[in-house]
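Per your request, structure below.
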């Protein structure tokens, strides 16, 4: 159940806090007391008139309104003990107690504290007598030129004097000045930027260890545990960082650049602090973004200034994609007016600091009120630093050692989990060690094998499915060394890429580690090679190396024992395994399908999924049989298929005759054979045809060995050994064509190969622009298996690229300019008339930037499809990617749905998930989601056009009715609970 939150304060900081808290799904309402114009009736956010100085009344308000968390923005309430009083009344607060807040409210307390705990700070002394202070200034053995008020001064209680006379004057009169480049009158903060490029990671760690951690530890030792924000003001000196002061709350305007970069849920983070669980729920950040905020102030600030001046241009700034946080603003007669010195802040979040600064300045230029002042040099030092010519680094060259180290740390526990007798599988050393004696060997022969996965990697990369390809790598190596009768002992991997994606690499290596456990070998080490320029973005290559051992007397094959009449046992493969994928990819390319095409009667698998079925690992299941003494030879059916692998374990005088009717050939081979028009020889020389391993055994022992194998694997007696006549083939496979036909199930025609459709549903596509999804729909409907045909493209704008794409595809187009019609209904009527002329049966909205009228939607109910760039019902509306990033979720995607009168509320047809990566921007996430849209929209159209998905139109809640083509069974799902299937 969602909670209510109260934010104390009225500045830009409090607006930013409310804005970020409101993004949490755990929060249903945010009160701000007293708030400003920006927090008045703004979605989940509203102002409250409750007195924040009367703590008893405030506590009662919190109880009455069921406030679950109070967040204190400014420093004055903290110093006044608001957290102490509310906590005593049973109200949870985020912020330090009055005693802990002395770190900000009393400079003399802070300085003494820093000295007690040996935290670096400037030399100092405190005074109550101005004469004594001036005497100290004049006699000190260091430049004592910085004068501070000990108490709170709203960020304006410090003077940096240029000489002793000025410092003495400052003792009696703290003055405010306003000027550029940090000279002249002193104001509250006039801008901020983050991150600070001048601060290295090493320096940040030093600040954490020598300042922040020591401060928190020191407060705890003194019996004053600290909860809340600790904001250190530091000076970087030749002797390292030194503390100038502490703030016990977010800075203003620093808060306005920090919170937009926070990826985590702020409400969750604050609750973790209060509940002493922050160490297990550390905040995450958008690390590849930068933020700049610029403060707009009233003329005369920090002195006297006018109030009540109308502010315009706020909507223009929002249209630029900027965040405007209000401070000194109020509502008057429905208008936003000035009410303070610092009026508002304009924040830009972009990929780099320079762009963010430029965008923030654009926002400032768009907003107007009389006499508005702001600084134009915010971030100038950072920009100057970034503009300096600095030497190249390895990271600049494209190799990120830190990312590689991160990967090693992530995969260490995966490797450790594969440990077995003989080694400990610890990564990070120069070499791995294995103790054969500890593994139980007496007179072993070492056996090694190396292999790759071939172009199966291409399919994994296209499908973005990286978790199973590691098993293929391990299987190809360990299955090979079984041919010598060897037990796999340890495995080494090689992962090469142009740019290291830690998440992808971790997924691949996690698959390798899991496969090593299945094989019974240790993942002893490996190499990750990041080589810029060697591989295109998103591509990588794999190689594997397995080492095993076999006792000298148990080695295979035993060529001298193999004779005419021996029996051949075939062990089932899981599919294509890892060979022949160049041919497979060519067949798919010339077919009517692609890797996202649905296959299988259950409708829950794509062709890509089927082809990525991992190679079987036989070591644990077959090794006991191979060691029994009853097996004369074992062959791994790898590259070269049945024809070239079986002869590798036979004496020159022997061959084998196989009967393809004796084993079950997986359906995928039947499809490859027919779609590729492959000969029998091509099938048996390229593919395993359903047999992943072959064993040669004496006829008398065949049934016993087969029985032992069948305890773990599907296996058959598939042939016999024969004496080879001169010039005869070593391997003959009888009845292959008959077997391929026999094993082609009734569902193959409709579920893998597809059926050429003649009576196609007529579809119109409505667009307003480039038509990227239109292009995907055109390509899919051109396939002979498509149930749909695009007969018309309608645009409400002339000359757009989408119209040209339709014309190039030979599709009729119409332009109906909405500006020529007095109402939406009139425009929709004109569209409807054209649709009727072309006998349209279904409508797809592909970037159509118009909201359809109620009468039009009702007429075409259940016949209009639209796509939304999120996993509905989450993140509805126009800024889905921005909302996704602000919410900090790890998965988004796209949703194809029927159109209803309420925007983005129609019944869901099809969804595809897309990961949200660390450092994603709106632009990078949008590109990834668009790729998913190009797959999802055609798939959804095929489902609806085929009749597999229908919308029932008997009232709310809307229901998607699903019809299984193969069995005509129907299932209905409310759009509240429906988990859409990809295929039927």
């Amino acid at each position: 159940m969602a909670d209510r939150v109260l934010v104390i304060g009225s500045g830009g900081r409090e607006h930013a806090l409310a804005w970020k808290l409101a993004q949490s799904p755990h929060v249903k309402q945010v009160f701000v007391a007293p708030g400003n114009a920006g927090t008045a009736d703004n979605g989940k956010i509203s102002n409250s008139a409750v007195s924040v100085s009367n703590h008893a009344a405030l506590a009662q308000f919190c109880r009455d309104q069921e406030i679950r968390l109070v967040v204190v923005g400014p420093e004055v309430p903290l110093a006044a003990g608001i957290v102490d009083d509310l906590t005593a009344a049973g109200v949870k607060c985020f912020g330090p107690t009055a005693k802990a807040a002395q770190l900000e409210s009393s400079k003399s307390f802070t300085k003494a504290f820093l000295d007690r705990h040996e935290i670096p700070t400037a030399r100092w002394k405190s005074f109550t007598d101005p004469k004594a202070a001036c005497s100290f200034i004049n006699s000190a053995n260091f430049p004592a030129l910085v004068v501070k008020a000990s108490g709170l001064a709203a960020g304006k209680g410090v003077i940096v004097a240029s000489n002793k006379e000025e410092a003495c004057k400052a003792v009696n009169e703290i003055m405010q000045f306003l000027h550029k480049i940090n000279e002249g009158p002193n104001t509250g903060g006039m801008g901020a930027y983050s991150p600070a490029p001048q601060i290295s990671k090493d320096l940040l760690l030093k600040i954490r260890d020598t300042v922040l951690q020591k401060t928190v530890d020191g407060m705890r030792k003194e019996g004053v545990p600290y909860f809340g924000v600790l904001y250190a003001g530091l000076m970087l000196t030749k002797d390292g960082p030194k503390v100038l002061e502490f703030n016990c709350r977010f800075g203003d305007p620093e808060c306005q650049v920090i919170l937009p970069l926070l990826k985590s849920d702020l409400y969750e983070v604050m609750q973790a602090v209060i509940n002493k669980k922050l160490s297990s729920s550390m905040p995450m950040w958008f690390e590849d973004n930068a933020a700049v905020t610029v403060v707009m102030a009233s003329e005369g600030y920090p002195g006297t200034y006018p109030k009540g001046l109308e502010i315009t241009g706020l909507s223009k700034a929002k249209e630029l994609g900027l965040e405007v946080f209000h401070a000194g603003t109020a509502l008057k007669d429905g208008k936003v007016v000035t009410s303070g010195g610092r009026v508002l802040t304009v924040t830009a979040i972009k990929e780099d600091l320079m762009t963010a600064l430029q965008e923030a300045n654009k926002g400032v230029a768009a907003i107007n009120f009389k006499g508005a002042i702001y600084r134009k040099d915010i971030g100038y030092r950072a920009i100057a630093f970034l503009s300096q010519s600095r030497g190249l680094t390895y990271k600049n060259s494209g190799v990120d050692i830190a990312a590689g180290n991160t990967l090693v740390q992530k995969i260490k526990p995966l490797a450790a989990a594969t440990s077995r007798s003989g080694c400990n599988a610890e990564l990070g050393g120069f070499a791995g060690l294995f103790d054969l004696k500890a593994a139980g060997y007496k007179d072993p022969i070492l056996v090694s094998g190396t292999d790759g996965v071939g172009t199966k990697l291409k399919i994994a990369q296209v499908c973005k499915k990286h978790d199973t390809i590691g098993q293929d790598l391990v299987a190809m190596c360990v299955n090979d060394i079984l041919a010598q009768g060897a037990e796999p002992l340890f495995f080494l991997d090689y992962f090469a890429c142009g740019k290291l994606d830690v998440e992808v690499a971790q997924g691949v290596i996690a698959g390798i580690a899991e496969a090593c456990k299945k094989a019974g070998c240790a993942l002893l080490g490996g190499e990750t090679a990041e080589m810029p320029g060697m591989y295109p973005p998103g591509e990588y290559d794999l190689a594997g190396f397995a080492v095993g051992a076999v006792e000298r007397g148990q080695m295979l094959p035993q060529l001298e024992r193999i004779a005419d009449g021996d029996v051949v046992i075939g062990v089932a493969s899981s599919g294509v395994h890892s060979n022949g994928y160049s041919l497979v990819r060519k067949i798919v390319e010339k077919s009517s399908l692609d890797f996202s095409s649905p296959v299988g009667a259950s409708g829950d698998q794509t062709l890509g999924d089927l082809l990525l079925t991992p190679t079987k690992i036989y070591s644990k299941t077959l090794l006991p049989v191979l060691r029994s003494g009853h097996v004369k030879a074992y062959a791994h059916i790898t590259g070269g298929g049945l024809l070239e692998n079986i002869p590798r374990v036979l004496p020159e005088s022997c061959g084998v005759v196989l009967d393809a009717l004796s084993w079950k050939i997986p359906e995928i081979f039947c499809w490859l054979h027919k779609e590729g028009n492959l000969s029998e020889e091509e099938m048996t020389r390229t593919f395993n045809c359903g047999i992943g391993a072959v064993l040669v055994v004496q006829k008398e022992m065949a049934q016993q060995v087969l029985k032992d194998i069948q305890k773990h694997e599907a296996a058959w007696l598939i042939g016999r050994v024969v004496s080879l006549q001169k010039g005869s083939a070593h391997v003959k496979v009888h009845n292959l064509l008959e077997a391929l036909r026999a094993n082609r199930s009734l569902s193959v025609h409709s579920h893998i190969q597809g059926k050429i459709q003649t009576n196609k549903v007529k579809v119109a596509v409505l667009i307003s622009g480039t038509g990227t999804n239109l292009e995907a729909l055109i390509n899919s409907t051109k396939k002979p298996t498509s149930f749909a045909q695009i007969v018309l493209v309608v645009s409400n704008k002339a000359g757009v690229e989408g119209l040209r794409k339709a014309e190039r595809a030979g599709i009729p187009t119409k332009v109906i300019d909405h500006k020529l019609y007095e109402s939406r209904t009139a425009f929709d009527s004109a569209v409807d008339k054209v649709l009727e002329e072309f006998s349209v049966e279904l409508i797809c909205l592909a970037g159509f930037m118009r909201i359809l009228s109620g009468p039009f939607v009702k007429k075409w109910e259940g016949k209009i499809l639209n796509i939304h760039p999120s996993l509905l019902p989450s993140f509805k509306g126009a800024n889905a990617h921005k909302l996704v990033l602000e919410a900090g979720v790890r998965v988004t995607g796209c949703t194809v749905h029927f159109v209803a009168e309420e925007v983005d509320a129609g019944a869901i047809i099809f969804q595809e998930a897309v990961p949200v990566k660390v450092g994603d921007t709106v632009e990078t996430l949008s590109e990834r989601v668009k790729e998913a849209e190009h797959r999802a929209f055609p798939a959804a159209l095929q489902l609806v056009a085929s009749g597999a998905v229908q919308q029932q139109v008997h009232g709310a809640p809307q229901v998607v009715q699903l019809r299984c083509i193969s069995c005509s069974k129907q299932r209905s799902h409310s759009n509240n609970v429906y988990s859409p299937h990809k295929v039927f």
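The chain has six domains: 103-248, 296-344+355-387, 401-431+440-554, 559-746, 756-836, 861-984.

Regards,
D.
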